[in-house]
Design goal:
The protein contains no helices and eleven strands. β7 and β8 form a beta hairpin. By secondary structure, the protein is mainly beta. The strands form two sheets. Strands 2, 4, 5, 6, 9, 10 and 11 form a seven-stranded mixed β-sheet that branches. Strands 1-3-8-7 form a four-stranded antiparallel β-sheet, with no helix packed on it.
């Protein structure tokens, strides 16, 4: 079992930066690939970024590539999402998730990010 708690959301202006954090419980944290997803009002949840168990492999949605960076600290059971050059269209609830194989089995409660123009 993995429990995930996100933090770091808030209200920022376009062009600003924000770093989201995800604290994970469980001794097997390093066995999971971790990801960030987001859901804007009236839209479906979408993939943002993923990082492998070792931290050496990362994947990004085209919409955030070059602006967002995902990282992890296995010693601290933490995952981060550094978001730079934020745009109003990045406004959403951001969720941390964990997967041991294919399905995203564990989800956090989400943290709101609002980017004003």
């Amino acid at each position: 079992q993995v429990q995930l708690v996100e933090s770091g959301g808030g209200l920022v202006q376009a062009g600003d930066s924000l770093r989201l954090s995800c604290a994970a419980s469980g001794r097997t944290f390093s066995a999971y690939s971790m990801g960030w997803f987001r859901q804007a009002p009236g839209k479906e949840r979408e993939f943002v970024a993923q990082i492998g168990w070792s931290g050496t492999s990362t994947f990004y949605a085209d919409s955030v590539k070059g602006r967002f960076t995902i990282s992890r600290d296995n010693a601290k059971n933490m995952v981060y999402l550094q978001m730079n050059s934020l745009k109003p269209e990045d406004t959403a609830v951001y969720y941390c998730a964990a997967t041991a194989a294919i399905q995203w089995n564990y989800w956090g409660q989400g943290t709101q990010v609002t980017v004003s123009s």
